[in-house]
Design a protein that fits this description.
single chain; Growth Hormone, Chain: A
Length: 450
């Protein structure tokens, strides 16, 4: 059976992860391409830093509104159908952003892009629980989320090149949205034919491998139900779910604040050309690619989640704070900003292994949607705070200090979460194999896996 299991895991990984990886690259490009378009758009349209920060962040208000229903639809209806719908509508919304002329149009276009993309990320996290065991999940999520640094490594220089064009009398920043919106529409159509909702429907899996993964996932489901059973409403009120939402809000505030403002900050510090700034902006994401994969691998190997989530946040927060002190020294400032950005999203794959380990299907889906929607309000707070504080102070330093503080506070809250009596898989260092199923059912779970 070990040989069958190894074959099944490899086949599932090869079939699903590269395609999901591609989809998330497109998603993240469409989400943050405004950071690079800003190098031309703000000047052409006369947008102030506050206007840009608000427009960049309002995406997440629209995202917030439809996030929980989207995650539940993936669990209850069809991952394939819902993800395809998301891709097609957000591709159209991205193209529309390239047509804006006023601040109000910019706000509305970004808001509707957020609504269009809502449910994509938590839907993918829920979808992975249909195919990967808890013991393999952090690594799978880490490989999927490696699309974040890859998208920036590709998107930054690509945007720098496109900014320099003037096709059909339109400035390059508009072409960034036109050219990066179309792939989402195309991939939405492909998704309908390529993805499979659950293992029992997978004709591309041999029967013995299909039976193995179905049995493994069913066993995990029984084990979770034996020690806990939450309704959707109970899950949303659970202490640890609320704390996880707070952690994600703080971490996302810092992470998106940096992601959206990094090109502008580098432009202010260096005075270099848009293309050069875009190339420099891509460099930190090379480091992020390695830290994401290595930390995800270490977390699965050790079956430990809290410290693997907290330490990258502390490193990123500390490096951001240091960037304020050395901002007058260009090389030093670029180095510490590279370090900060290289760890700023490292927490995410490990973080998302937590709710799927402690909650059963519908409760986990609703909780993932809730955590992601509340947390992504930080995607509004971070960019807007930097723009607003720059308007007040004339410098991005105050905004960067706030972002650093949110990252450190997120790490502190993660470490305040109590390790559970049972590890995520029942085999980790916190497992107590002598506890009977009856005793497990009698215990009210109050904490998360270590």
């Amino acid at each position: 059976m070990q040989e069958v299991g190894a074959r099944a895991r490899r086949r599932i990984g090869r079939r699903l992860l590269p395609f999901l990886f591609l989809l998330y690259i497109i998603a993240f490009l469409d989400r943050v391409n405004v950071a690079y378009a800003a190098l031309g758009m703000t000047e052409d349209l006369g947008f102030s830093p506050e206007v840009f920060g608000f427009g960049a962040g309002i995406f997440f208000i629209g995202y917030f509104l439809l996030e929980i229903p989207g995650a539940l639809l993936v669990e209850k209806w069809s991952a394939r159908g819902w993800i395809a719908r998301i891709l097609i509508t957000w591709g159209i919304a991205t193209v529309v952003i390239g047509m804006v002329h006023t601040a109000q149009q910019f706000y509305w276009a970004r808001f509707f892009l957020g609504m269009a993309e809502a449910g994509f990320f938590p839907g993918i996290i829920v979808y992975l629980t249909h195919w990967f065991r808890a013991a393999d999940r952090a690594k799978a999520v880490a490989l999927f989320m490696a699309a974040i640094p890859i998208s920036n490594m590709i998107g930054a220089p690509l945007a720098g090149v496109i900014l320099g064009v003037d096709w059909a009398g339109l400035p390059g920043w508009r072409w960034i949205f036109f050219l990066e919106g179309v792939p989402a529409i195309v991939c939405g159509v492909i998704t309908i034919f390529y993805l499979t909702d659950r293992p029992q429907q997978a004709r591309w899996l041999p029967a013995d491998e299909r039976d193995w993964i179905m049995a493994e996932l069913e066993k995990e489901k029984r084990e979770k139900k034996a020690r806990m059973h939450f309704s959707v409403w109970q899950a949303l009120r659970h202490r640890d779910v609320l704390l996880l939402a707070l952690v994600y809000f703080l971490a996302v505030t810092g992470s998106y604040g940096v992601s959206f403002w990094l090109p502008t900050i580098l432009k202010q510090l260096s005075g270099l050309s848009n293309l050069t700034v875009s190339l420099i902006s891509a460099a930190p994401y090379v480091l992020l690619l390695f830290t994401m994969i290595l930390v995800g691998w270490s977390s699965d190997r050790r079956q430990e989640r809290r410290w693997h989530t907290a330490v990258p946040l502390l490193i990123a927060g500390g490096a951001l704070a240091a960037s304020i002190a050395v901002r007058s020294h260009l090389t030093a400032a670029i180095l510490v900003l590279t370090l900060a950005t290289g760890f700023i999203w490292t927490f995410a794959p490990i973080f998302w292994a937590l709710p799927t380990a402690i909650l059963t299907e519908a409760a986990a889906a609703a909780s993932i949607g809730f955590i992601n929607s509340v947390g992504n309000l930080g995607g509004f707070a971070g960019p807007y705070a930097v723009g607003y504080l720059e308007k007040l102070t004339g410098s991005t330093s105050a905004g960067i200090a706030c972002l650093a503080a949110t990252l450190v506070l997120a790490a502190i809250v993660v470490l305040s979460l109590r390790p559970s009596e049972l590890a995520a898989t029942g085999r980790g260092p916190g497992a107590k194999p002598n506890i009977t199923a009856v005793e497990q059912r009698q215990r009210r779970p109050r904490s998360i896996p270590a």
